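A note from the maintainers: we've had questions about how concatenated examples are separated. There is no special marker in the raw files; a new sequence line simply starts the next protein. For clarity in this README we add a label.
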Amino acid sequence: MDSILLYSLLILFLIFLSGFFASSEVVFFGASNISEEKDKAFYKKLIDKIFKDPQALLVSMLIGNEFVNVLISSVSSGFVINLVGKRWVFLSSIFVSILIFLIGETIPKNVALFLKDRLLKIYAIIFYPYLVATKPFTYIFVAPVKKILKLFGVENISLEKKFSLEHIVYIMQSPANAQEFSEEETQMIQKVSEMRETIVREIMTPRLDIFMLEATQTVKEVINEILEHEHSRIPIYKGTKDNVVGYIHIKDLMPVYQHKDDKLETFLRPIEFIPEVMNIKNLLQEMKKSSSQIMMVVDEHGAISGLITKHDLLEWLAGDLPQEWEDEDEFTKMSSDVYIVEGSASIEEVAATVGFELSENYDYDTLSGFIMANMGKIPKEGDEFEYKGFKFIVDKMDGKKIEHVLIKIPTDKEPNS
């Protein structure tokens, strides 16, 4: 009776061991949080050593599994012979094979498939001593394996995980990770994953909504219309709206009082044309290559079907963004020659409205940036300076932020609005 119990316990232990080796393959090669665990000091060395040589890791698993399975067959055969004689050995071998397949292979691997990330730490602690102990035997098999792989051009195998964007989105949207990411972050990654499938036509400004101007119009004729539409870059056509000849940047028109009689075609910049079926990924590459902020979109017949800007692209990726000029209350006209302007106002809009010319290589976007660049410091309330005859007085500060600026226009110049 004691021998039966001993044999039974030994066989069960060996089957359990077989299950461990079988499931370790799933755990080590399937876990998605390898990099995460490597960031934790306690496991970093251990996991680095285990994953240093993937071929050796796999071979050591196979050696262990095969060795244990051979032991199970031998022990079970000896147990059956001692118990009922040799005539039942064949049937017992079939029974043990089924047992190994179910309990030693299938069940452990399926369990590991669902719990692989949780089991990684435990398996690493248990498996490492075995990996060290079997290293001499493992090398005998690994050396020829590496040489054979080299013949097929495979030299280095890494366990670093490379996920597709679709996989990342799936992970982010899973219930386990839902609280880790905001809805906006998830949507942005989702959009990035859709860049190959989404085409320009789906996100462009359609032709009917494009603000365009005719090349022969003068600055004086269109300046109020430009300020009303609040776009810094405007497509220019000649004759018909299908004949777009370029675009103008509003800063090129400044100061307006000097250019008021000039035609818009004087300020033309080249504009690029792209097909409406181009995908967003290629659009991004085109914009990066050309450094263009604005492109015209054409249909299959070459007719203008829309307009696309970097703002449209960013808005598609990140959701609603502020328009180029958004705040209607940024300017307050106190008198014919005095304005109160918010510090956050676009410097291009300020210059166009008030009527002064910016230097060619300015690197600021707002009135606040313009003031700090010219004063060389963070101003205090009441600080003032002159720029080309225009007087700028810091009217209100909020800590280090410029809230309001008073602008006085020279008597010999007129504002544009």
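[label: protein 2]
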Amino acid sequence: MLALTGIAGGAACALGALTLNLIAAEGECEVFWRNGDVQFKTSTPGTSRNSFTVKATSGSVEISGDPAALATDPVALAKAITYRGAGTGGFELSTADGRTVAVSEPDGTLPTGGVSFVVKSPENPAGTRIPVFSYPAPATLQPELHLLPVVSVQVHVITPVDFTPEFAAVLNDAFGPVAKGGDKFAFCTGDFNA
């Protein structure tokens, strides 16, 4: 599950857009991808042994359009929202012989785009930021916009995440043919406030 919770520290307006700063956010994803030889291990434990958490250290929510008009139309509001955030958290995938791929420092966007992480592997122990997850369809956003006393937004998020071709290639280099781009990895839900 991906649970995002945050509080706005300020807002900035641009022509036709409102940007709210995110101060804090948390997330959790339940991993269902399995490969007999490759084991999942969380670096940041979630509510189950098959989940991992992330915590935002920076981020923003952009609302494109007139907030007053969008406040009464959740469908239009959902289409007008873009979340961007970076943070901490992650997981490891490893084999019994000690080969490990470590994934940390998430940076992503919702409802489209995806999530990149710093990925360390036996072939690249220093690590490189690469796209790790994509969304098979735009994430489902269920927003609620408040105009008073200050503009704020609460959003419930639901999305599965798939491996990107780039991350599948890292896994295959480390472990042999175990993954491909588009493989289903986890199901994430959550909430964020800005």
